[in-house]
Structure formats: structure tokens, C-alpha cells
Amino acid sequence: MPSRQEVYQAIDQAIDSEREYQNRLSANRTDGRKHTPGEFLTMLRVYVNKADVAWTENAGDEATLEIMRKIAGIAVNCMETWGAPKRK
Fold first, then answer.
1. Which of 3, 25, 71, 76 could crosslink 29 through cysteines, CB 3.0-4.6 Å?
2. CA distance 64 to 21
3. 34-73, pLDDT tens digit by residue?
4. Please, are residues 77 and 40 in contact by the beta-carbon 8 Å criterion?
């Protein structure tokens, strides 16, 4: 099992590449406006459901993990937009 540090290093690259992809989405995929936290939550729910389907319909975990990267990117996008309060 990888260490937390190894996981952080791997996800840093994965999330960065996902966020770059999201930022390049064309106008037919996004309206270009600032989404609300509630809209980000809706996007997260949609992609969690897609991950459930991917896990159910595909052998192995690769398809599910691809969607997990997207989920992480959406969550980071929300925190980039609205902030990420530190745990008290």
C-alpha cells in the first residue's frame, strides 16, 4: 500500500492535469460563469453516480478511478473558486 505522501504526490499530478482539462472545456460544455457551491455539489453527485455505474459495469477499478480523478478536480475547482476553510 502506498504511503500518504506517495498518494499526495500522485494525486497532485492527476488533479493538476484534470483541472487543466476542465479549464480548457469549450463553451458548449460550460457557460463560462462562476458556479455556486450548490452547483458544484450537483456536479459531484452526478460524477459519483457515474463512478458507481463504472464500478458496476467494468472489470477492475480503472474506469472508476478515472471518474474519481474528475470528482477530485471538481472539488478542487470549487475550493479554488470559493475558498477552502481550514479545520479548526
1. 25
2. 18
3. 899 999 999 999 999 999 999 999 999 999 999 999 999 9
4. yes
- CA gap 59, 33 in Å, rounded: 37
Q: In whole angstroms, what is the distance from residue 23 CA to residue 43 CA? A: 15
pTM of the model: 0.84
DSSP string, 17-56: HHHHHHHT--TTT---SPPPHHHHHHHHHHHHHHHHHHHH
Residue with the three cell numbers 473558486: 81
d(CA 68, CA 9): 16
CB atoms within 10 A of CB 35: 17
> All 3 cell numbers of residue 28?
458548449
φ and ψ at 84, to 5 degrees? -135, 85
Largest CA distance in the chain: 41
